[in-house]
Amino acid sequence: MMNTPLRLDNYFFPVVQVVANPEYRSIEEHQEPIFKIAPSVAKNENGLYQVSVEILLLQEEEKSPVPYSIHLVSLGFFAVQPDWPEPEKLLFINGSTILYAAAREFLITISSRGPWGAVTLPMVSFLKMYQDIMAEQNSSGSDDENKEPGKQAEK
Fold first, then answer.
1. CB within 10 Å: which end of the chain, N or C, has fewer?
2. CB 20 within 8 A of CB 67
3. pLDDT-derived band at 2, boundaries 50, 70, 90
4. Mean pLDDT in the chain?
């Protein structure tokens, strides 16, 4: 079995806000809520990487009502094998995926005790998100090779 180049040291949820919408009615037909998902990657002074995934679901005036307003941030500290060729890519894709899965389970637990039942986060491809960000940076002619792809990511 091959060892992974990525090690999760710790993760937690520094921002947790789930507010039930009193205007929501579960018997009405609603569209699937659109979550805003923003991953980011930064290197700490102690050599660990900090990966965060911010998740938002807010009521928009013209849209179908959502059961809850949600603001959740999952924050993790990762170590990467020193000789790994693209640590930011690995962290953006795999680190974000790990934290997002933890956030999905955490949100199911919290929202299941609310009046409108459990909310399950949709599946997300952080690989696709990374590719889209890199394509956008390349098309804009960005010369900054050290720019971290997660700084502007949002789905």
1. N
2. yes
3. low
4. 88
* CB-neighbour burial class of residue 143 (10 A; exposed 0-12, middle 13-18, buried 19+): exposed
Amino acid at residue number 90: L
Report the distance separating Cα 121 and Cα 79, nearest Å: 26
Can you tell me the distance from the alpha carbon of 74 to that of 93, in angstroms, rounded to the nearest whole number?
14
Give the distance, in angstroms, between the CA of residue 38 and the centroid of all CA atoms in the same chain.
Answer: 5
Classify residue 2 by its DSSP letter: P
Query: Got the DSSP string for 62-127?
Result: TSPP-SEEEEEEEEEEEEE-TT-S-HHHHIIIIIHHHHHHHHHHHHHHHHTTSTT----PPP--HH
* Whole-model pTM over 0.70: yes
- Location of structure tokens 């971290």: 148
Tell me which H or E stretch contains 13. Answer: strand 6-20
